[in-house]
Specification:
The complex is a heterotrimer of chains A (358), B (304) and C (263).
Chain A lengths: L17 E10 L2 E11 L4 E5 L6 H9 L6 E6 L2 E2 L10 E4 L11 H11 L4 H14 L15 H14 L4 E5 L7 H18 L2 E6 L2 H7 L2 E6 L2 E6 L1 H6 L4 H6 L4 E8 L2 E4 L2 E4 L8 E7 L4 E4 L7 E8 L3 E8 L4 E7 H4 L7 E6 L5 E3 L2
Parallel strand pairs in A: 3-8, 3-9, 6-7, 7-8
Antiparallel strand pairs in A: 1-2, 1-4, 4-5, 9-10, 11-12, 11-14, 12-13, 14-20, 15-19, 16-17, 16-19, 17-18
Chain B lengths: L18 H10 L5 H22 L10 H5 L3 H33 L6 H15 L2 H12 L4 H8 L14 H25 L3 H9 L4 H30 L2 H6 L7 H10 L6 H33 L2
Helix pairs in contact in B: 2-13, 4-8, 4-10, 4-12, 5-8, 8-10, 9-10, 10-13, 12-13
Chain C lengths: L4 H29 L11 H8 L1 H34 L5 H13 L2 H18 L7 H23 L2 H10 L4 H12 L1 H17 L2 H5 L5 H9 L3 H25 L13
Helix pairs in contact in C: 1-12, 2-3, 2-12, 3-6, 3-8, 3-9, 3-11, 4-6, 6-9, 7-8, 9-12, 11-12
The chains are: A alpha+beta (358), B mainly alpha (304), C mainly alpha (263).
Chain lengths: 358, 304, 263
């Protein structure tokens, strides 16, 4: 679910661009962030995706002002915020867990930021209840955090962050501490709310399915650097680096030859994605759904090892002659006709792929 | 697609245990607990019950409320009042200073060496009591104490006075020495229970440090703080040894009144008064500890 | 947020002041007990008295023996009981917990007031040695020992260990002594050390029941030789501190990590 990143008409009337320039953060001998540069358009939702230790949470915390960069700048709406203290940045943040104040009711929690801004009780209660309605928790306003489920608590946290009409919304792995089922429901909720309110949003996660499902653009990070920033479909179809190709979606690594701007893989000639090897031998990153299988071929080049039934699609593991195992994603009605030991012909379709050095 | 019914197999019939055997097994597993319960019965339950029962007995074993009435005598009320002042003041001082020390120590972070040393040291000092503590302060502030002599010779100030160390003021000063570390031990878990996310969320929503403490930090810590203060109160109220060593004559506080009731050779009837005083002490401590338990539950609910 | 420079300076000053407050009486004990007559340097006469004075020496030995006996009785009584409760009669665990924590609410002074009748019997049956204080001391130590052993037991899966051992043919005694006990050693040692610290400093029971333990003897001697009594007090502090330092070395660190602080 993606939309083109143009600032929509917002309920709050503000959505600002976010600019991280050359952000570096060093702890002793560890470079948590290494020259991160990122531009986020007003009203856009960008997911920062990567394995743990890649620097995504560090980047978010520096953006929020909870951490100071060793070098680089943070600016929002054109204003440099690098030296501005965290409580003056006008951002709303949702933490992974445990951030609701336990001694206050839900509605008091949501109204907290407004109380700090000096709004009178009637006004801030009105706004707080309104925000709670927005996240679907109007009925729970007078309960305490400990009486709510994990998913409900995170929705309250979201309402609380939005109540102050922040210029940027920050989400630090908001779904990681929740059950799988709640996670999928809540991520769609978050996206719905974000589109309705229109705030520029940065959302950190290590779960690629989450990132691909709801973000406008996804920034894949590794070892403190940004590997690629692109809409989800582009990230999947045209990974810019080996890391992105391996991290996002599944991959087979098949030996290939690069010649005249095309790759020769498993007997087929396939176009290349930018960033591939120029020439010579390398490894092609082939997605399982791009592997072709012909059970009736007279020139088989692989033996079926095993078949995993996953519902509409099955995974067929093939021992390709002279190469390691290759995994193909095959519609189940087709897969069901195969059996371990069958000899089949395996190739690739014409989807452009990335070839990296072996 | 028809769902085939799965029949559950009939339960395997086992031979039921012999009628008396079940009872034997149940009782049998309680037998190894007898030494423990027996021990506690003799050395804890019986003495406590003795105190309660003897408090309402006279010299010949008959029922009387005379001892309880004697608790309203001037001497007894005075001693109780002084005990309350001693316990209350050292609880407040200990809570405030101990709370401050806890905060300083906790802010060092969980991996700090200083912090771990400080907490262990507090563990030792909180157990400090009685004889060693009394002598420590006698050696410092006594008539020929180190500080007394130092101030006597150089600036010529006499801090000995008429021996204030051996009265209520002295007890207050000395008791703080173990009340502060006890506060650190009891209160530190509450401070550690303050999640950093609360601070960060408050800051993110616009709170200054002062606002965070005023609206989030202090309200969350108040039950734990009050509870710890109550614990300190009970601790001081029940303390005996330190006072016994410092104050050799007279009974300014309840525990020492009990001492003279027990060791008095003049009036044998005083013995049962001792029981009444002990009962009074149990009641006061029980009430305070009950309130402490309630506050602890509130804290636990928030800081889970 | 707490690492601003101003805060760190203030904290350093604060901690130093507190440290001074706590160190000063201890240092003054050292000074007082080693003062020679007429301010002429140091002497360890007072310390020598501790060993040379017969009454004092006997009292010190009595206290040390009491410490050993108390630890022994506490371990023998409490550890098997707690393991047994966990494994076989869990419904009693609340009662056991209540009883073990009771001495925290019932002041030692109160127990001693009511215990003289019991001790009259003990005197009759066993004798009037100071070592009979062991029984009373185990009661006093109970809350601390219980908590320590309980948390050690909670950290391991006693039930599974016991079941595994039983299925291999071990008797209950073997289970307790050779399977569970070695795994809760830190908790037991911790309880033992606290017991020693408590016994060496205990005065209330000893003095009111007229037994001659070290603290009682020190108070006796303070009337004639103040320096010796201070030396004795300092000696017991040093011993207890050494014990508790060994204890904290044995304790494994439990450092909690906050979630989501890694990348």
């Amino acid at each position: 679910m993606t939309t083109t990143p143009t600032p929509p008409a917002t309920t709050t009337g503000r959505s600002l661009a976010v600019e991280l320039t050359d952000l570096t953060r060093v702890y002793g001998s560890v470079r948590a962030l290494d020259g991160l540069t990122l531009h986020i358009n007003p009203g856009e939702m960008v997911a920062l995706l990567g394995p743990s230790g890649c620097g995504k949470t560090t980047a978010l915390r520096i953006l929020a002002g909870l951490d100071q960069p060793t070098a680089g700048t943070v600016s929002v709406g054109g204003k440099d915020l690098t030296r501005v203290p965290a409580n003056k940045r006008d951002m709303g943040m949702v933490f992974q867990a445990y951030s609701l104040f336990p001694h206050m009711t839900v509605v008091d929690n949501v109204a907290f930021g407004l109380k700090l801004r000096g709004q009178d009780r009637a006004a801030r209660m009105r706004v707080a209840r309104d925000r709670l309605e927005l996240v679907g928790l109007g009925e729970q306003a007078d309960r305490y955090a400990s009486q709510l489920s994990g998913g409900q608590q995170q929705r309250v946290a979201l309402a609380r962050a939005l109540a102050i009409e922040p210029s940027v919304l920050l989400l630090d792995e908001p779904l990681s501490a929740l059950d799988a089922k709640v996670r999928t429901q809540l991520r769609d909720e978050i996206r719905r709310v974000q589109l309705e309110v229109g705030t520029t949003t940065v959302f950190v996660t290590h779960d690629q399915e989450e990132a691909l499902a709801i973000a406008d653009r996804v920034g894949v990070m590794n070892k403190g650097r940004l590997e690629q920033l692109a809409p989800p479909a582009e990230l999947y179809a045209s990974p810019a680096t080996r890391f992105v190709a391996e991290f996002v979606g599944l991959n087979n690594k098949v030996p290939a030859q690069v010649r005249d701007g095309r790759a020769e893989v498993l007997g087929s000639s396939v176009p290349l994605i930018a960033g591939s090897l120029d020439a010579g031998a390398g490894l092609a990153m082939v997605r399982p759904e791009s592997v072709t299988l012909d059970a009736r071929s007279s020139t088989p080049n692989a033996t079926v090892e095993s078949i995993n039934f996953l519902g509409p699609v099955s995974r067929v593991y093939l021992d390709v002659d002279g190469i390691d195992t290759v995994m193909a994603a095959v519609p189940s009605p087709v897969a069901v006709k195969l059996a371990p030991g069958d000899r089949v012909a395996v190739g690739v379709d014409s989807t452009p792929l990335l070839v990296v050095a072996a | 697609m028809a769902v085939t019914e799965v029949t559950t197999p009939a339960p395997v019939a086992g031979t039921p245990p012999a009628p008396g055997a079940g009872l034997k097994i149940a009782v049998g597993s309680y037998v190894p607990l007898l030494p423990f319960f027996g021990f506690l019965l003799i050395f804890l339950i019986v003495p406590t019950v003795t105190v309660v029962v003897s408090a309402v007995q006279d010299g010949e074993g008959g029922f009387t409320l005379g001892n309880v009435r004697a608790l309203t005598s001037d001497a007894a009320v005075n001693a109780l009042w002084n005990s309350i002042i001693l316990s209350g003041s050292t609880a407040i001082i200990g809570a405030v200073l101990g709370g401050l020390l806890s905060y300083l120590v906790v802010s060092l972070g969980p991996r700090s060496v200083i912090r771990r040393t400080a907490v262990s040291v507090c563990g030792v000092l909180a157990q400090f009591g009685g004889v060693t503590l009394a002598f420590a302060f006698i050696s410092l502030l006594g008539f020929s104490g180190v500080l007394t002599e130092a101030l006597r010779s150089w600036p010529g100030i006499d801090i000995w006075g008429s021996g204030w160390l051996f009265g209520l003021p002295g007890l207050i000063v000395v008791y703080c020495y173990f009340q502060i570390p006890l506060m650190v031990i009891v209160f530190t878990p509450a401070l550690e229970g303050l999640r950093p996310q609360w601070r960060e969320a408050a800051t993110n929503l616009g709170a200054t440090t002062a606002q965070y403490w005023r609206m989030v930090g202090f309200p969350l810590l108040t039950p734990a703080f009050l509870g710890s203060m109550l614990l300190l109160f009970a601790n001081a109220f029940a303390a005996y040894a330190t006072a016994a060593v410092l104050v050799s004559q007279g009974n300014p506080i309840s525990p020492l009144f009990i001492r003279s009731a027990l060791t008095s050779e003049i009036l044998l009837g005083q013995r049962n008064l001792g029981f009444a005083l002990a009962l009074q002490m149990v009641v006061v401590v029980a009430i305070v500890m009950g309130a402490y338990a309630l506050l602890l539950r509130r804290t636990a609910r928030w800081m889970r | 947020m707490t690492s601003t420079r101003g805060f760190r300076i203030a904290r350093g000053v604060g901690l130093t002041l507190f440290a001074a407050y706590f160190m000063v009486p201890l240092l003054s004990m050292l000074d007082f007990s080693t003062r020679a007559r007429g301010d002429e340097g140091r002497t360890f006469d007072a310390w020598r008295t501790l060993v040379e004075n017969e009454d004092l020496r006997e009292a010190i030995i009595a206290s040390l023996l009491l410490a050993v006996l108390t630890v022994a009785l506490m371990v023998v009584l409490l550890v098997p009981t707690m393991i047994w409760v966990r494994l076989r009669v869990p419904r009693v665990s609340r009662l056991v917990e209540f009883l073990c924590l009771l001495p925290l609410t019932i002041p030692a002074l109160v127990i001693v007031v009511g215990i003289s009748g019991v001790y009259a019997w003990v005197d009759y049956l066993i004798g009037d040695s100071a070592l009979t204080l062991t029984f009373a001391y185990v009661v006093l130590v109970l809350p601390y020992a219980y908590r320590s052993i309980d948390s050690a037991l909670s950290a391991i899966d006693v039930f599974t260990l016991a079941e595994a051992a039983r299925s291999l043919g071990a008797s209950w005694l073997t289970v307790i002594a050779r399977i569970v006990l070695p795994n809760i050693m830190t908790g037991v040692l911790s309880a033992a050390f606290i017991a020693v610290a408590l016994v060496l400093g205990e005065f209330t029971f000893a003095s009111l029941l007229h037994f001659d333990t070290m603290p009682v003897a020190l108070v006796q001697i303070s009337k004639t030789d103040a320096k010796a009594s201070v030396a004795g007090a300092l000696a017991s502090i040093i011993l207890i501190t050494l014990l508790l330092m060994v204890l904290s070395l044995l304790h494994r660190d439990r450092v909690t990590r906050t979630p989501g602080q890694e990348s």
